[in-house]
C-alpha cells in the first residue's frame, strides 16, 4: 500500500517514535511505501510532502518534535478543502492516511473518513486528555520536565521566603498539574476541573509560614478559571479551531495571593519547555507501540478508528468516541491532592 502520514496540532515528544515504528513495520512487514505530508493538514492542501524511508526515519524515535512539522489547519473550514484533500491523495496514489493529532486534528480525520478518505488516527496531546485512552505519548516527558522545574522552584522559593506559582499546560484537564504537582511536593495543586477557592489556597500557604516553612509552591493549570471567573488569555487571537491562547493565570494568581497574604509572591510559566526536547523512554516506547498498531489498523482497513491504550494493551476505538469529550480528572484524583495537603 502507499500510505501517507501527517502530524497536526501542538507538537509533543514521541511523534517521531510513532512515525518511525509505522514506517519500519510498514516497509519491512507489509511492503508498504510512505510519504509524509509537511505541516499537518496544510501540507495535504499544498501537496507538500517528503518520502519516508527506512533511511530517513532511522533513529528519529530518539528525537523530540516532529520531522514532519505541524500546523493547526482546519480543513472543514476551508471552502473546497475536502475536495482538495481527495484530489491530492488521488494524485499521489495514496491508499491510506495516518493522522497523528489531538481532538482538533482527529475531527478532520473523522470528517475525511466519513467522506470516503481511508484514514485512521493516532492520539496526540501533551495534555493527556483524549477520551478513551489511558495515556498519550509526550505527557510523561512533560511531567518529568515540570517535576524537575518545580523541584528547583522549591529551593529558590525557600531561600527567599517566597511563594512561587508555577503555571503548567492543560487547557481543559489538569493532568500535568496533578502529576507534576504531586510528584514534586507542591503545597497547592490547582486544576481546571475544580474551582479555585482562594481562601483555602491562602490558608494552605499560611500553614507553611506558621509551621516553620517560610515558603510555598503552587502549581496551576493554564486552563483554570480565576476565582472571580474567567480564564486568563495571552492573546485574543483564535486558531482555526476557535481556541484562544491561554496564558497568565499563574501571574494573576500570584498577585492575588500576595495581596491576600502579604507573602512576597512570584510566578513562572513553564510554557513550551514542557513540549520540547527528547521523549522519555516511556514515551518512546508508547509512541512506537501506537505506530505499530496504526499500520496494522491500515492493513485491517479500520477506517475512522484511532489507536488507544487501555491498561497495558493497545487497541482502537472510533474517532467519534475519542473526540466526543475530554478525559478529565475526577474525584479519585481530587482526593489524592486533598489528602496530601496540609490539614487547615
Ligand atoms: O493542546 C496542547 C497545548 O499544549 C495546550 O496545553 C496549550 O494551551 C496549547 O497547546 C498551546 O498551543 P500553541 O503551541 O499553539 O501555543
* Named CATH topology of the largest domain: Rossmann fold
In CATH, the architecture of the largest domain is 3-Layer(aba) Sandwich
**H/E series:** EHEHEHEHEHEHEHEEEHEHEEHH
The tally of beta strands, per DSSP, is: 13
Helix content: 25-40%
The profile of the biggest β sheet is:
5 strands, mixed
Distance between the termini: 63 Å
Bound molecules: 6-O-phosphono-beta-D-fructofuranose
In percent terms, what proportion of residues is strand? 15-25%
Quickly give the structural class.
Answer: alpha/beta
Which strands sit side by side, in order, in the main sheet?
3-2-1-4-5
Q: Which ranges are low-confidence, i.e. pLDDT below 50, for 5 or more consecutive residues?
A: none
Q: Specify the number of helices.
A: 11
Structural shape: elongated
Q: Can you walk through the features of this model?
A:
The chain folds into 2 domains: 2-137 and 279-322, Rossmann fold (3-Layer(aba) Sandwich); 140-275, Rossmann fold, CATH 3.40.50.460. Helix content is 39%, strand content 19%. The termini are far apart. The chain is of the alpha/beta class. A hairpin with a 2-residue loop joins β12 and β13 (313-318). The chain is elongated and about 70 Å long. The strands form 4 sheets. The chain has a 5-stranded mixed sheet with strand order 3-2-1-4-5, with helices on both faces. Strands 7-8-6-11 form a 4-stranded parallel sheet, with helices on both faces. A two-stranded antiparallel ribbon has the order 9-10. α1 (15-30) crosses α9 (281-299), α5 packs across α6 and α7 (198-210) packs across α8 (249-261). It has helices at 15-30, 41-45, 81-91, 103-114, 139-159, 175-183, 198-210, 249-261, 281-299, 319-324, 331-340, and strands at residues 2-7, 33-37, 49-52, 96-101, 119-123, 163-168, 188-190, 216-221, 233-238, 244-246, 265-269, 305-310, 313-318. The structure holds 6-O-phosphono-beta-D-fructofuranose. 6-O-phosphono-beta-D-fructofuranose binds next to β10.
